[in-house]
Amino acid sequence: MIDGYGRDINYLRISVTDLCNLKCTYCMPENGIDKKEHREILNLETIEKVAESAVKLGITKIRLTGGEPLVRRGILDLVRNISALKEHGLKELGLTTNGLLLKNYAEDLKKAGLTRVNISIDSMDPDKYRQITRCGKVDDVLEGIRAAKEAKLFPLKINIVLIGGFNDDEIEDFVNLTRDEDIEVRFIELMPLGEASEWDTEHFLANDEILKRVPTLISMPSKGHGSVARLYKLPNSKGKVGLISPLSSHFCHYCNRIRLTPDGKLKPCLHSNVEIDIKDYAENEFDKFLMDGIKAKPMRHCIQSNDYEPVIRNMHEIGG
Ligand code: SAM
Ligand code: SF4
User: Fold this and answer.
1) Phi, psi (5° rounding) for residue 185?
2) In a mutational test of the pocket of ligand 2, which residue from 64, 199, 316 has the highest number of ligand atoms less than 8 Å from its CB?
3) 278 neighbors 266 (Cβ within 8 angstroms)
4) 52, 144, 150, 164: most buried by Cβ count inside 10 Å?
């Protein structure tokens, strides 16, 4: 599906729940969130129908995210049913997770048809990890990473949100993980979203900091259309380093995605409050729902402009 600015929209991110087993400072409010009523959240059957319409319209890549997707009951069935769309043109089904439950799920996710996972870990230091997530144990994530490797959920990507004054002292440690392993370590710039916005502004650090701290990184050719990461590698390393810089070097001209929230809103742009509500469409109109979302995609975000309206939703309700 081509949007109003000639971009081929072939990637759907589905946030399957706004709930999470962590409360990362930049993503969730400190006091947690109220659990929504059952009827306010899309049921799995509806998510599958939207995914089916999307694939028939030309979506080739779907990512399940959250909140924490592995806390959604029925996640394995959802993966299995969406994975069956590979017969209709789906090429890749990925999942972004904080990794805490992966040790229990990795093998079954692979069997259910999941192609690959991205695992988020902002610090490898147990105390700092607990501080940023407000409750997590880093060893659980490390076990999850091992389980993902054993299950061959490749290519494996590790997501780190770069937080000035908090984890910038670990940049080299994270980059060094790519020396002997074929993984992609990706640094993501902190984005101002929802209640955590003020916190974000205070700790924002542009991704160029990575290149200053590790000058030996060599630039690699981009993976082409839709790739949001600028890629680098250490000399002779097996893995890669990706820099995702939505603020300091926006990639809106390559944007190939739309997002579905757990409560059934299609978000044409992560950094805008414009949403299309599934409730305004009948079940046989999901194609139109998706096409209206794509038509509403703006040319670019305007975070740095005077017209910018801060995004109300927190990231746990959107999925990254
Ligand atoms: N719970 C899963 C996880 O943490 O990977 C999936 C959902 S989480 C919202 C998806 C990604 O968004 C994570 O890598 C997380 O670090 C990132 N994220 C959340 N809030 C962010 C923010 N304000 N700025 C940049 N990245 C953010
Ligand atoms: Fe949960 Fe992921 Fe948000 Fe952290 S970033 S609170 S793990 S949804």
Assistant:
1) -95, 120
2) 316
3) yes
4) 144
For residue 92, report the phi and psi dihedrals to the nearest 5 degrees: -145, 135
Every domain of the chain and the residues it spans: 11-318
Do residues 196 and 163 lie in contact, with contact meaning Cβ atoms separated by under 8 Å? no
What are φ and ψ of residue 319, in 5° steps?
105, 10
Please give the Cα distance from 211 to 160 (Å, whole number): 15
Helix (H) or strand (E) holding 287: helix 286-295
Per-residue pLDDT tens for 91-103? 999 999 999 999 9
Q: Is the CB of 158 under 6 A from ligand 1?
A: no
Query: How far is residue 116 CA from its own chain's centroid?
Result: 13
Asked whether the beta carbons of 319 and 96 are under 8 A apart, the reply is yes
Q: Which fold has domain 11-318?
A: TIM Barrel (3.20.20)
Longest dimension (CA), the chain: 55
Each residue's pLDDT tens digit, 53-75 = 999 999 999 999 999 999 999 99
- Among protein residues, the one with the nearest Cα to ligand 1's atom 5 is 97
- Report the candidate in 226, 71, 218, 239 with the shortest Cα–Cα distance to residue 157: 239
pLDDT digits (tens, 9 = 90+) for 191-243: 988 876 667 778 999 999 999 999 999 999 876 656 789 999 999 999 999 99
> 200: Cβ below 6 Å to ligand 1?
yes
Hey, what are 129's tokens? 């990890």
Can you tell me whether residue 23 is helix, strand or coil?
Answer: coil
Q: What is the dihedral of CA 172, 177, 178, 181, to 10 degrees?
A: 170
